[in-house]
Amino acid sequence: MHFSVGFLVIMYLIEGVHSLVEFTNFECELLDRSFCGVEYCRIKSVNRTYKYLSLKVNLFKTPVTDVKVNTAFYQRLNGYKPFLYNVTVDACKFLKNQNSNPIFKFVYGVFKDASNLNHSCPYDHDLLVEKLTTETYNHYVTKVLPVPEGKYMVKMNWIAYNISRAIIRLYITLT
């Protein structure tokens, strides 16, 4: 009797253990400074356990009516190597029908509530991601699509009118 109760308690504790996401770096690389500018691109550490990232992109040539996004996942194994997905979507079409691409729906789900990218093209305003927390990210990489422990990079290449305009890189550690 004691064995089965103890076993259940141990199983409960193991079930209760979950992964922890930590943002380690956030980079915003502009490829066409005449098209857009980055006002800020930062990770803010409020305390040891609460971090969030924020990004503000100023669009200089509005309205923007043609946007594609290439999103690739990399795992650090003697350098960053492709991991899981590398997908390109027409962002304007995707935002009209978010069920059209389940992989990008996952990616978009991570940041949609923290951003103003909640409508389809055209975009005639600055683009914001404000206070995307590690808690939000943690939910997606542990509950929605469990990912093994390790160091990862999410790279997003933003393409407007078939020209790469900016590359965003988010580095995370999953423990």
User: Which spans have pLDDT < 50 for at least 5 consecutive residues?
Assistant: 1-17
CATH fold label: Ganglioside M2 Activator Protein, Chain: A
Q: Number of DSSP strands?
A: 8
Q: What's the helical proportion of residues?
A: 10-25%
Order of helices and strands: HEEEEEHHEHEE
CATH architecture: Distorted Sandwich
* Overall geometry: globular
Strand order within the widest beta sheet: 1-8-7-4-5
CATH class: Mainly Beta
C-alpha-based Rg, rounded: 19 Å
Mean pLDDT over the residues: 84
Helix- and strand-based class?
A: alpha+beta
The biggest sheet amounts to: 5 strands, antiparallel
Characterize the quaternary organization of these chains.
single chain
Structural domain count: 1
- Work out the helix count: 4
- Span between N and C termini? 35 Å
- Strand residue content: over 45%
Determine the CATH superfamily. Ganglioside GM2 activator
In short, what is this structure?
Keywords: Signal. With 175 residues, this protein is an alpha+beta fold.
Task: Explain how this protein is built.
- By secondary structure, the protein is an alpha+beta fold.
- It has one domain (24-174): Ganglioside GM2 activator (Ganglioside M2 Activator Protein, Chain: A), CATH 2.70.220.10.
- It is 24% helix and 46% strand.
- It has helices spanning 2-16, 91-96, 102-111, 134-144, and strands at residues 21-30, 36-45, 51-59, 67-76, 80-90, 127-133, 150-160, 163-174.
- The chain has a 5-stranded antiparallel β-sheet with strand order 1-8-7-4-5. A 3-stranded antiparallel β-sheet has the order 2-3-6.
- Helix 3 (102-111) packs antiparallel against helix 4 (134-144).
- The longest helix has 15 residues, at 2-16.
- Residues 1-17 have low confidence and may be disordered.
- This is MD-2-related lipid-recognition domain-containing protein.
